[in-house]
Amino acid sequence: ELGEFDHYMQKEIFEQPQALSNTLEMLSGAGQLQPGIFGAEAETIFQHVDSVLIIACGTSSYAGMTAKYWIEQVAGIPCNVEIASEYRYRQSVANPRQLVVVISQSGETADTLAALHYAKEKGHTYTLAICNVPESAIVRETALRFITRAGPEIGVASTKAFTTQLSALFLLTLLLAKIKSNLPQEDEKAYLDELRHLPVAVEKVLALEPNIKIWAQYFANKQHALFLGRGRHYPIAQEGALKLKEISYIHAEAYPAGELKHGPLALVDQEMPVVVIAPNDELLEKLKSNMQEVSARGGQLYVFADGDSSVKNSAGMQVMQMPEHYGLLSPVLHVVALQLLAYHVALVKGTDVDKPRNLAKSVTVE
Ligand code: M6R
Questions:
Q1: Is 120 exposed, middle or buried (0-12, 13-18, 19+ CB in 10 A)?
Q2: Cα of 59 from ligand 1 centre, angstroms
Q3: Sign of torsion over alpha carbons 199, 16, 106, 359
Q4: In the structure, which protein residues have their CB atom closer than 6 angstroms to any atom of ligand 1?
Q5: Is the ipTM of this complex over 0.90?
Q6: Per-residue pLDDT tens for 114-169?
Q7: Which residue owns the Cα nearest ligand 1 atom 7?
Q8: Distance (Å, rounded) from C-alpha 315 to C-alpha 324?
């Protein structure tokens, strides 16, 4: 069943181009994007919503956090993200015009399901599930749904479920943008073309595996690692840190790079590898000064750069050149590189990649 692969996680990382094209199959025709892909009532509901509340756990919550950047920038409506286990026990103020989006690979996560029940009790009726399992509990309880088509995910560490969730959330962003802020047709067309091309762009990142494998050697004997990102790549830094700690048991933390000076810089020394997600976007110059702060303290930088980047190898800084800069969808490419990094560090350490200690694939108890 594993074919040419050594583990399910590796197989699932490499299945991502196919998982994305399956999830985005509705884009294969030339027609316009239709709200109906989220359910029969989607058009009416989207017309009424004034904001979005995303609720999820773990990796699925990082998909939600990435979408927050997209929704506020492209659709121009407020979006908040809550961890399900926090939301369900918190007194919050419900806004019935808010679209509540629950994201879950399994559709069975106890806290996410309970948070959905809580939202409904508080009067939310505009509910949407983004889920990878069509017959799961969560999907049966929402007004709207979108089923990602990642196929079964066996590895405990979520990979293809995450990138397909991101693709679904980008579709949601575009539909909300069309309905709420009159997204110009040429912009819609350009975004849809980028989505269609995404599987090919992911293939090019997968081709970096041999280089990433070399980097894995530098991490395997470390106790800690810091992941830095800014903007829509901050949740990707968080996801990269989660992947590393989950399967290699190396303590990894993610910070928005601008927070360095407010505390974590004190941790940086020669023993602290610092992974930086440094796409060639509007925040790169800011990020470069953060990298300087790390170098000046002897920290070792491992930087994922892309496009025509000015970030180059230098003393204390190694650069992994990603194939192309992919604009708003760039998080999808950068996370694939981080999945590969975590996978190869775990291989060097000899941990049980597909079944990390203490964890279950589906967390059906709180
Ligand atoms: O099935 P779900 O998406 O609801 O699961 C949520 C988390 O338990 C899950 O993403 C977890 O964080 C992964 N093991 C991370 O790789």
A1: middle
A2: 5
A3: negative
A4: 57-60, 104-106, 109, 112, 156-158, 242, 246, 362-363
A5: yes
A6: 999 999 999 999 999 999 999 999 999 999 999 999 999 999 999 999 999 999 99
A7: 58
A8: 24
